[in-house]
Amino acid sequence: MKKRIGDGGMFEEQLKKAIQDEYQTYFWYKSMLELTNDPTWKSFIEHAITDEKTHYEMFQQLYYMMTGEYVQNLTKRPPCKNLKACAKEAIGEELEATDLYKEMFLNTPLEQGQYPFFIAMQDEMEHAIRFSTIFNAL
């Protein structure tokens, strides 16, 4: 028997989307890593890759706590082909994620949900700065 917390509703759908987004971003950033030999840019991208994996894992755990299931059948997005264009796109996506995670932090139905959203919100702001630096330097 599945255990469910709350009515499932909008928060659960937002969480599923966040899990999908973190999964896609992890692999997309891995493709970006292959487009540079600059050690600073590599370290910035590697840092973001590690964070995205952590966010994915934390969000999956929260989803499991709420539903008794993990989100399955996730899809990857096409790989990055142009580092500057992808860095620019990443800035916008990271800032959007910051806004979403702030809302989710405030509306999580579980107290345990606050920690992952707080961490992710802070990390996404940091990623936007890192990708902005890469974009402006290219």
Tell me what the structure shows:
The chain has helices spanning 9-33, 39-67, 83-107, 114-137. It is elongated. It has 138 residues and is mainly alpha-helical. It has 4 helices and no strands. It is 75% helix and 0% strand. The termini are far apart. Helix 1 (9-33) packs antiparallel against helix 3 (83-107).
Task: Please name the defining characteristics of this protein.
4 helices, mainly alpha, 75% helix, disordered N terminus, 138 residues, single chain
Describe the protein's topology.
Blueprint: H1 9-33, H2 39-67, H3 83-107, H4 114-137
Helix pairs in contact: 1-2, 1-3, 2-4, 3-4
pLDDT averaged residue by residue: 94
Total DSSP helices: 4
Q: How much strand?
A: under 5%
Give the overall shape: elongated
Please estimate the helix content. Answer: over 70%
**SSE order, one letter for each helix or strand:** HHHH
Based on secondary structure, the structural category is mainly alpha
Radius of gyration (CA) equals: 16 Å
CA distance, first residue to last residue: 53 Å
Uncertain segments: 1-5
Task: Report on the biggest sheet.
Answer: none
